Amino acid sequence: MRRKLLMGNWKMNKTTVETKEFALQSVEFNKLALENNIDIGVAPSYVSLATFKSVNPDMICAAQNCHFENNGAFTGEVSIPMLKDINVNWVILGHSERRTYNNETSADCNLKIKALLANNMTALYCCGESLEIFEDGATKEFVKTQIVEGLEGLTKEEVSKIVIAYEPIWSIGTGKNASKEIAEDICQFIRSVIAELYDVLTSEKVRILYGGSVKPVNVKEYLSMPNIDGALVGGASLAVESFKELLDNIL
Ligand code: PGA
Fold first, then answer.
1. In whole angstroms, what is the distance from residue 190 CA to residue 185 CA?
2. Does residue 174 register a pLDDT over 90?
């Protein structure tokens, strides 16, 4: 049985003061989530990770990126040992905003996923197509390539530990969320690609999330679908009240 997962992606939002406020208020409802076998977490900016962890150490706290090298001449980058040092064990990789604005490729993500796994950390690997690809009916082909390239060279055991998020770019921050049927179809397809690359048992272990304009009003319909194990939420994860409502609606 896969545990449900609700993840907030804060993107470039919240100062350390704002992060601390959220972290304090979320201690109690993280306990409630865990008692109900639901994992919840947020991804603050690098600057706020240590603050979050120091206030709410039991809730998942993810970085929004990392470098695959442990150290070196990479100005502006943050390494995996630096994240481990502040007890951050999760990293979101391949978000469409990073693919678009920072030219991050699936091959880059593959190096980062391998480095995270080598450090016993969890990668949350994002995939998803543009509106043009969606309208051309080429979503599956496109997403399959992202999955194949992102998971290249991983063993079955390694793949079963990663989390995948399907986030159609046309639904991110637009209020145009994909219907639960579309989201389920692609999440089921991703699982079938993993089954094809590895085996059915391995594919059944991987948690697959939907992301893109998930709100308190629609979160439950996604999580009621058999192949959707949770949600990656941007805008609606920022206010603590809204995050709590997302959780309440799936409890
Ligand atoms: P949104 O963002 O919920 O604001 O659409 C989702 C994401 O980018 O992960």
1. 9
2. no
